[in-house]
Design brief:
The complex is a heterodimer of chains A (197) and B (174). Chain A is built from one helix and 14 strands, in the order αββββββββββββββ. With 197 residues, chain A is of the alpha+beta class. With 174 residues, chain B is α+β, with helices and mostly antiparallel strands. Chain B has a seven-stranded antiparallel sheet, covered by helices on one side. Chain B is globular. Classes of the chains: A alpha+beta (197), B alpha+beta (174).
Chain lengths: 197, 174
């Protein structure tokens, strides 16, 4: 092999090796698209900033608090709880309204964000209650789910409902209430999303 | 030489884009949706919800009369449990401020650890004593006034506007 041919092969090998890093860089820059991202419907608490119309804390405002540092986008709201038995009544609650129009009625999984209690002391309640409103406010609560906000698999979302119907035309929503078996640990309200089942 | 460099970059870009399309979403780890897709949410009609709450509540719902200028109702929600009815209303105001009223016939707030009639400091609005608190919500401060009406209903009004504004609206609640 001539010196020129050898040099040419070396350049070719170098070029081949360069393709892979470039490809990786492009893939990272483009981002791996989430095929289902277009059909997620999400609502964040926005840390009580009034920046969106789909999340509302309810009850006396003095028992609602915000905390920066933990939670989706580095922030969350939390509320003081009351006892979980029949001697206590709901005082504070929060509503996440399904942010879609009536053409999206269907079955959804509902997932909520859980931060780590190791870095944020509010995420310790292992029995918060979410209520599903399949037909919106006027339709009443369809079911109540107990949900553990204190898990080792934290700083990610956990599934509250697996495959439940929401009629968006009637304003489907989810509600978090302050009654908890794990009273007085607080209940956190943060990022929630609906994922078509 | 220049052509080869271009070829490397183009080939890399094509492979990278292909990888981005082919790899499953799970390869990204946890799901973090990017944005609200549909901003035309079908929120419940607050007027209809208020009418429903008025029919369901065993008491007359207390409201400001008149409502502050520029007020637009956002959501109305109510909770019924064990004979207790709580009604919660949010309004928006010009400039993106909001105000909020919660009221209940719950007689056990103190026992439940949420006695709004003993927290904060007492202030007079007209001839009526209210309990005043201020709670930080991030960049906002929610100024709240609470009192019990003669019919036994406990009511709290709160807003990110200043205490004098909240007091001025509280004075109109009937």
């Amino acid at each position: 092999m001539s010196a020129g041919a050898s040099e040419s092969h070396a350049r070719l090998r170098l070029a081949r090796r360069a393709v892979v890093p470039v490809a990786v860089l492009v893939a990272l820059a483009v981002g791996v698209p989430d095929a289902s991202a277009a059909i997620y419907w999400q609502v964040d608490d926005s840390c009580g900033s009034f920046s969106q119309p789909y999340f509302y804390p309810a009850g006396p405002s003095q028992f609602w608090h915000t905390h920066s540092g933990g939670g989706f986008n580095g922030c969350h709201m939390w509320m003081n709880t009351v006892c979980g038995n029949s001697s206590c009544n709901i005082v504070n609650w929060a509503n996440w309204y399904l942010p879609v129009d009536s053409s999206y009625n269907g079955n959804y999984q509902v997932w909520v964000w859980r931060a780590c209690s190791s870095s944020d002391s509010h995420w310790t309640n292992d029995s918060v209650r979410y209520q599903r409103f399949a037909y919106g406010t006027g339709g009443g609560s369809t079911e109540t789910y107990r949900f553990d906000q204190h898990v080792s698999a934290c700083n990610q979302s956990g599934e509250v409902t697996a495959n439940d119907y929401f009629q968006a035309s009637s304003g489907g929503k989810m509600r978090l209430i302050d009654k908890s078996r794990d009273y007085p640990d607080p209940a956190c309200a943060d990022f929630l999303y609906w994922y078509p089942a | 030489m220049g052509n080869r460099r271009i070829l490397v970059v183009v080939l890399g870009a094509v492979l990278g884009a292909a990888a981005a399309l082919v790899l499953p979403a799970s390869a990204r780890g946890n799901v973090t949706p990017a944005s609200v897709v549909d901003t035309q949410a079908n929120l419940p009609d607050p007027v209809a919800e208020l009418e429903a709450a008025e029919q369901a509540a065993p008491y007359t719902i207390h409201l400001p009369d008149p409502l502050p200028d520029g007020t637009v109702p956002l959501v109305v929600d109510s909770v019924q449990e064990n004979g207790v009815t709580s009604v919660d209303i949010w309004w928006t105001l010009p400039g993106s401020s909001r105000f909020h009223i919660w009221q209940t016939n719950n007689p056990s707030l103190a026992a439940e650890g949420k006695d709004v009639l003993s927290s904060g400091t007492a202030v007079m609005v007209g001839n009526t004593s209210w309990q005043q608190t201020a709670t930080s919500w991030g960049q906002l401060v929610m100024n709240e006034l609470c009192r019990r009406f003669d019919d036994g209903v406990t009511l709290c009004i709160s807003s990110n506007l200043d205490p004098p504004w909240v007091s001025s609206v509280a004075a109109t609640i009937k």
